Every structure is written in structure tokens, then in C-alpha cells.
Amino acid sequence: MSATFTVSAGVRIPTSLLRQRRGSGRGRWHRLSTRAASELELEVCVKASTTVPDRLGDCPFTQRVLLTLEEKHLPYQMKFVDLSNKPHWFLQISPQGKVPLLKLEEKWLADSDVITQALEQKYPQPPLTTPPHKASVGSNIFSTFIAFLKSKDPSDATQQALLSELTSFNEYLKDNGPFINGDTISAADLSLAPKLYHMEIALGHYKNWSVPESLSYLNNYMKTIFSRESFVKTRALHEDVIAGWRPKVMS
């Protein structure tokens, strides 16, 4: 008889199903790590896809948490939450109705900063901490991307502001790369990469804009991280990213 595990939602999952492929559609719980099923312990509430049933949605902050779990080789389960129709059980553990949410030591933690820091403290190996003087590298890219995406005035400075931030980051990588902390991937990369992924898809779709080829170090950085196994496992579908940003573009 297959061993079973009971999770907080009352779902009992046989070991044989814990290795199911992502997107198989068998229930709402999916296992994406590679450790033995007997070690399964972490639960994560994530945004559900709005385009395909039983798939991960388009939240870059949730992907940051999932990337941390993947890079630390921690076993986890995702529970998909329809943010347009939030279930009662979810609002009970997340009064603000936001994801990501991770259960650690019987306590639900919110906010990707809080969650990733808690994971680093409890599971320090492999280390992902970014040195303080490097932690803010590239941190202005996301806000300038959003400003450009929302802009309806071709003559404003939003495109140039984004290009300036990307150029600065490209120069940083040229001198310090291939990752923000040099040769090894760190927390700062896991925070920035999902935002760059959203930037690439959303600006390509809504603005017909892409990162200039002249920013070769940035392009290589994106290509390297986007093809990383942990990223491929946790990325949103292009359709979800496009749909997710539509309200901001249309507002």
C-alpha cells in the first residue's frame, strides 16, 4: 500500500502521486522538488493561472519564493489560489488576500522578503545570501519597467529611464558578473530574474520593445537564468504574464 501524507487542506496524497508531472491536473496539489516524498513538508499558496487549469500563475514574487525552494532543494507543495475569487480558507490564513504564502513550522508567512529570509535562516545550505553592498543592484529596474509599460506618451522619459537602469546593470555585470554576486547565483538574482522575465514578455507584447542587443551582458544574464532548471520549473506561462499586466496597460 502506498504511503500517504495529510496536508492542511485535508487532502491525502499517495506517494505515487507526489511525483506527478506539473500540469497533470490530478488534484490541486503538485510536487516540484526532487527529494524523497517522505521529506515533504513545506506548503506554498500561489496564484493560479487564469488561462490553464491547475497551473502556476504570473506572480513574480511567488516565483522568487519558489526559486529559493528549488535552489535549496527543499521539498514543497503548491496550492493554487484563484485571486479573482478568493476562497474562505485562504482569507483565514491571509487576511489581505495576497500571495505568496508559505507555511513554516506551523506558521503561515507572507511577503517574499520575509519568506526568503526565513528560509535562509532555517535552511542555510546552500547559501543564497547576497552581500549587503550588492543586494540592491538592479532594484530600480522593475519600477521603471512598470512606468514605461503604463505610459501612453511616447515623448515622456519612461523608456529612457528604463534603458538607463538596464545599461547600468549591464555595466555592473560586465565588471562583476556573470551573476550579481559574481560566479554564484544568490538571493538578489532570484528576486530580479522573475521581474526581468515579466519585463521581456510584457514589453514585447504591449510595446513591441526588447532589450537592445548592445546590452550583451544583460542578455546573457537573462538567457542563463531563464534556462536554469529551477526557473523553467517555476516560470509562468507567457499567456498569464500578458493577461496579468493587461489591467495596468489599459488603465
Automatic annotation (TrEMBL):
Biological process annotations from GO: ascorbate glutathione cycle
SUPFAM superfamilies: GST C-terminal domain-like, Thioredoxin-like
Gene Ontology molecular function: any one: glutathione transferase activity
Domain of life per record: Eukaryota
InterPro entries named in the record: DHAR1/2/3/4, Glutathione-S-Trfase_C-like, Glutathione-S-Trfase_C_sf, Glutathione_S-Trfase, Glutathione_S-Trfase_N, Thioredoxin-like_sf
The GST C-terminal domain, residue ranges: 105-251
Keywords: Detoxification, Oxidoreductase, Transferase
Coiled-coil zones: none
Pfam families (alphabetical): GST_C_2 (PF13410), GST_N_2 (PF13409)
Domain GST N-terminal residues, every copy: 49-127
Gene3D superfamilies associated with the record: 1.20.1050.10, Glutaredoxin (3.40.30.10)
PROSITE patterns tied to this protein: GST_CTER, GST_NTER
Catalytic activity: L-dehydroascorbate + 2 glutathione = glutathione disulfide + L-ascorbate; RX + glutathione = an S-substituted glutathione + a halide anion + H(+)
Key word Transferase present: yes
Annotated family: Belongs to the GST superfamily. DHAR family.
Protein name as catalogued: Glutathione S-transferase family protein
Organism of provenance: Rhynchospora pubera
